Amino acid sequence: MNLAQNAGKFLNKCKDHNGAFLFATLATAWALASTAQTFGLIFNKKIPKEEKKFLVPQEVMDGTFNIATYAAITVPMMHYAGKIASSKFPTNNKAVEGVKTLAAIAGGIISSNVITPLLRNKTGVIIKKKIEEKSGKPFTPVVYNNKSYPYFKANNERPLTMQNYMQITKTVPYSSSLTI
């Protein structure tokens, strides 16, 4: 069977299973977007190699967390939502599929806006600690306006505050997409 026939069968099934279609297309879209962003970082000549060493693995990890948490949250949500809807509407398949579709949407929202950021931040802390252990240099925050902030290199090393971040996004050539 060729690719076109497989795609046709998949699309034919999806007309009756919108939740499954939404799940599959969203997971595929995240994989493609993450891949494109990773390759964009790799081939962008304006980004220094030192920054790529951090940015590329970060993007790979972010994409992996997005897809994995989406699947881990959404598949069970769709399954249980389908069971509940089947018991409430035993003869109405459209209602059951509608509930599964809503579960797929809710799973995407919960996983990408709650679970993934928590996992990514926790993993970032672990990786930072390992890097500090390897280098033998612990990270020391800098006190600025009675608050501690990390420093970042750009425009004469300034504390990483929201105001400085907004300013730096205006001056660093490859960060135009980071403006707030």
Written overview of the protein:
- The protein is 73% helix and 6% strand.
- With 180 residues, the chain is mainly alpha-helical.
- It folds into two domains: 3-139, no CATH class; 140-180, no CATH class.
- It has a two-stranded antiparallel sheet.
- It is elongated, with a radius of gyration of 22 Å.
- It starts with a helix and ends in a 9-residue tail after the last helix.
- The model has no long low-confidence stretch (mean pLDDT 77).
**Counted beta strands:** 4
Beta percentage is 5-15%
Helix fraction? over 70%
> What sort of overall outline do the alpha carbons produce when their principal axes are compared?
elongated
What is the number of helices?
5
Order of secondary-structure elements: HHHHEEEEH
Task: Give a quick rundown of the structure.
With 180 residues, the chain is mainly alpha-helical.
